[in-house]
Amino acid sequence: MKKNVPVSKIMTKDLVTLTTIDDLVTAEELFKKHKIRHIPVVEGTSILGILSYTDLLRISFADAVDEQEESVDTMVYNMFTISQVMARDVISVSSKTTIKEVAKFLAKKEFHALPVVDDGKLVGIVTTTDLINYLLDLY
């Protein structure tokens, strides 16, 4: 197994992002369109927080959300803003952080995505799915 491989090798670089001006309807549409579970919330190239699909499920009624459904029921979403729902105190890693370090960190924490930030600029995101796919590629 390769050691000291930087997370830049497996992170998602082509990011889908939101701003605090966007609404939760837009967020759910992006989650479904891109089949993703985490979206960084940015201001310019700086990260402000992360919105997860689980965050949306918490404020909506989980049994009313159909992942296959393209349309979105907006009534609950209109009661909240992205700023109110997103995780704010996000921990980030640099693109030089090793995959092993990221794996250890995610294994200990209760979240499943880390923004990758170099010199204050968001350059990617790494998720538990990225780690699993990396391991699968090794076998």
Automatic annotation (TrEMBL):
Q: Which InterPro entries match?
A: CBS_dom, CBS_dom_sf, Diverse_CBS-Domain
Task: Give the matching Pfam families.
Answer: CBS (PF00571)
The record places domain CBS at 11-67, 86-139
Q: Which Gene3D superfamilies match?
A: CBS-domain
Superkingdom of this protein's organism: Bacteria
* Keywords, alphabetical: CBS domain
Q: Which residues form a coiled coil?
A: none
PANTHER family in UniProt? CBS DOMAIN-CONTAINING PROTEIN, CBS DOMAIN-CONTAINING PROTEIN CBSX3, MITOCHONDRIAL
> What protein does this entry describe?
CBS domain-containing protein
Protein source organism: Flagellimonas hymeniacidonis
